[in-house]
Design a protein that fits this description.
Length: 552
């Protein structure tokens, strides 16, 4: 790439700079203004609009919203339209299913009192609340660089330059990014954010923690026939089509307006490089207990996103000089409940309250250690601690035995307050992948275009777009290593773990060549997590690019 001298950035100053207009970032912004209306607060969002990059199930525990906006239920325009009315848990086999009695499930697994929502629409609604309080929100601007003072404290972020061509040179539409400076910076980028990764490494925030664990969640939104719709039904399942050694599960959520959300999660510590999470999801929909819901229906949206699964023992230190990690940048998902947005809201509120107090005391750009000191003893810590052994038990003992043992552990926590041990996760998800020689290729059926689909038609429904004449935002550190290891040893799993058809190995002049179709990227970050050598790095493209999820 050509080295080019670029002009100095213009800068803007705020009390607090927040990266990411998700549940955590917007809740932090709202809480800051509730505590002190005079604070200047800005939120940067890399999506073209607030909610454009938000993808979640989602069944939401309203605990966070009740704390942030106690009167929200009385408002006519809130997005929580469908309260859960029925809760089903299924074990799937190849030809049938077994419904587990609800009485066997630990109480924390129940969903009554929760709401089926589009989390993107929740964020759009929260953004209106924030703006009404005077928060500035800048969608379409990706925070691409951390800014530090001479002492090494974070003092702000810079947005990415626009109009850089593939050569690395400024094009005719070049615009230099802005520097946004703040007394404190909150990082709420979501799972595996590029700035959070840098901060965790620079300040050794993962010291004495277990490796973070991840899943890949793939989701479709369907319009179904009225006779197949049951508003308020929440159905979770595990088992087929995954084998008993591969963790994962699936869900169907019946929303309002005859819409059904169907999703599939594969834990990214799977071993078989021939496994394709996307294809497993398509197979899942053909199960006799599932497919009837979609007969005569129409798929209207598609998306994919990584999920943090490490839980209590994998949450990094939250604070660093000049700011804190919040939401999924820290990893507050409760895995067995498949819920994290309530904890994201609560983490944003906690950070906001402590930072507002620090500013009131005349502090800035120091470490607000009170955030780290208090979260484990609060509602987030209590929520995660009681399920901390479920994921490692599942990983260690497989689906049949591991899920049962996880259920017993949750009951112990329910009855006795806490189990007497905390299990470790061990390997990273990248290190869990095994060489192709130990496995057989998986023959997946071809899509029928009615119930099952291919990647490219799916990406089309995500409204994904990237300017092609820009540097590729998926960085391969060592292309020779990619050929020698990812291709030769692991049989090119990137072509299968990516749910958007970004990666291909093709024949070129008699040799395999690695092709990156970056314009297809839905920003799920799976490649940054699962590449066996950590050789692929995801960084933000130009602001405003990527998917535009309308109702996900």
């Amino acid at each position: 790439m050509v080295e080019v001298d670029l002009p100095e950035r213009e800068s803007m100053e705020f009390d607090v700079v927040i990266v990411g207009a998700g549940p955590a970032g917007l809740s932090a912004a709202i809480r800051l203004k509730q505590v002190n209306p005079d604070l200047s607060v800005v939120v940067l969002e890399k999506g073209a609009e607030v909610g454009a990059h938000i993808l979640s199930g989602a069944v939401v525990d309203p605990a966070g919203m009740d704390a942030l906006l106690p009167g929200w239920r009385a408002e006519a325009d809130h997005p929580f339209k469908t309260e859960v009315t029925a809760d089903h848990f299924l074990v799937l086999g190849p030809a049938g299913s077994l419904r587990l009695p609800n009485v066997l499930m630990p109480p924390l697994m129940g969903n009554h009192g929760n709401y089926i929502v589009s989390l993107g629409n929740v964020c759009r609604w929260l953004a209106t609340k924030a703006e009404a309080l005077g928060v500035e929100i800048y969608p379409g601007f990706a925070a691409s660089e951390l800014l530090f003072d001479d002492a090494g404290a974070v003092i702000g972020v810079a947005t990415g330059d626009m109009g850089i061509e593939k050569s690395g040179e400024p094009g005719p539409n070049f615009a230099r990014g802005m520097a946004l400076l703040g007394k404190y910076v909150l990082i709420g980028e979501g799972v595996r954010g590029s700035l959070a990764k840098q901060l965790i490494a620079r300040f050794d925030l993962a010291k004495d923690r277990e490796p973070q664990k991840f899943g890949i969640g793939i989701k479709e939104l369907w319009q179904v026939k009225p006779e197949h719709h049951r508003q308020g039904l929440v159905q979770h399942s595990f088992g087929w089509p995954l084998d008993l050694a591969t963790g994962g599960g699936s869900f169907l959520y019946h929303m309002e307006d005859n819409q059904v959300v169907v999703g599939f999660v594969v834990h990214l510590n799977y071993k078989n490089p021939y496994l394709s999470p996307f294809e497993e999801f398509q197979r899942f929909k053909t199960h006799p207990s599932i497919r009837g819901v979609f007969e005569g229906g129409k798929r209207i949206s598609y998306g994919a996103r990584a999920i943090t699964e490490g839980g209590y023992q994998s949450v990094p230190k939250l604070t660093f000089p000049g700011g804190a990690l919040i939401g999924c940048s820290a990893g507050f998902v409760n895995v067995p409940r498949i819920k994290g947005s309530h904890n994201a809201v609560l983490s944003g509120m906690l950070a906001a309250e402590k930072i507002a107090a620090a500013i009131a005391a005349g502090r800035q750009n120091d470490e607000v250690a009170e955030i780290e000191a208090e979260w484990r003893a609060g509602p987030i810590g209590r929520d995660l601690k009681r399920v901390r052994n479920v994921k490692p038990l599942w990983s260690r003992f497989g689906t049949a035995l591991g899920v049962a043992m996880g259920g017993i552990d949750m009951w112990i926590n329910q009855i006795f307050g806490s189990s007497p041990f905390t299990l470790r996760h061990g390997k990273t998800d990248a290190a869990s992948l095994e060489p192709a020689a130990r496995h057989r290729p998986i023959a997946y059926p071809k899509p029928d275009g009615v119930l099952t689909f291919d990647r490219l038609s799916s990406v089309f429904l995500s409204n994904t777009n990237h300017e092609e004449d820009q540097p590729v935002h998926l960085k391969v550190k060592d292309m020779e290593l990619q050929k020698r290891s990812e291709h030769d040893v692991y049989a090119g799993p990137s072509a299968r773990y990516c749910p958007a058809g970004v990666y291909e190995w093709v024949e070129k002049d008699g040799n395999p060549a690695f092709v990156i179709n970056a314009q297809n990227c839905v920003h799920c970050k799976t490649c940054d997590i699962k590449d066996p050598n950590g050789n692929i790095i995801w960084v933000p493209p130009q602001g405003g690019e990527g998917p535009v999820y309308p109702n996900m």
